[in-house]
Write a structure and sequence with these properties.
The chain is an alpha+beta fold. It has five helices and eight strands. It folds into two domains: about 1-80, ACT domain (Alpha-Beta Plaits), CATH 3.30.70.260; about 90-180, Alpha-Beta Plaits (2-Layer Sandwich), CATH 3.30.70.260. The strands form two sheets. It has a four-stranded antiparallel β-sheet, with helices on one face. Strand 2 (about 30-40) and strand 3 (about 40-50) form a beta hairpin. Helix 1 runs antiparallel to helix 2 (about 55-70) and helix 3 packs antiparallel against helix 4. It is globular.
Length: about 180
């Protein structure tokens, strides 16, 4: 089976996921992974799918575009290479980094640059900026995989220094602790 990544973007409205998944089912595609969110008023969905051998990416794009045309959604499909690049991610532990503080340009860029300098991978990011100086109105939540071999003390220190320079409150917790504390 061929594999592809499918992105669907456009103004949010009911029925987008139902339409996309119906077309994938009708075309005998298997959804392997999906991530969907609403960014203010805009829908963003990404799907990793496996396609049957007799279905081309162009055909699938056509079926999806036709079905989503009345919703004015944009569809993008790219193949996923099957070959193995040989890259093996390092052993890591999942952490959650949360920042709160006054809104200003460059917050995500500065925090993500610090994260990248330590070879930490961001696996999920949610940021909500309502503007102004009220800390609770401007929140960023980074889910990251921290390699076990890095100097975690140095990583945490640099994150705290970066946050302080941006007037952000920061919390760095192992994901298990974060989930336990925030369980409803």
């Amino acid at each position: 089976m061929n594999r592809a990544i499918l992105s669907v973007l456009g103004h949010d409205q009911p029925g987008i996921v139902a339409t996309v998944t119906r077309i994938l089912f009708e075309q005998s595609c298997n959804i392997e992974n999906v991530s969907q969110t609403i960014l203010q008023t805009e829908f963003a969905g990404s799907f990793i799918v496996s396609l049957p051998a007799d279905l081309t990416l162009e055909e699938l794009r056509g079926y999806l575009s036709e079905a989503l045309e009345f919703m004015n959604m944009h569809v993008h499909i790219e193949p996923i290479a099957i070959e193995n690049s040989g890259y093996q991610p390092p052993k890591s532990e999942p952490f959650v980094i949360t920042t709160k503080g006054p809104d200003r340009k460059g917050l995500v860029a500065a925090i993500s640059a610090t994260i990248a300098r330590h070879s930490v991978n961001i696996t999920n990011l949610q940021a909500v900026f309502k503007g102004g100086d009220e800390p609770g109105d401007n929140i960023m939540i980074y889910e990251v995989d921290v390699p076990t071999e890095i100097d975690q003390v140095s990583f945490h220190r640099e994150l705290r220094d970066t946050a302080k320079s941006l007037e952000l409150n920061i919390s760095i917790q192992h994901r298990n602790i974060f989930e336990t504390i925030n369980r409803i």
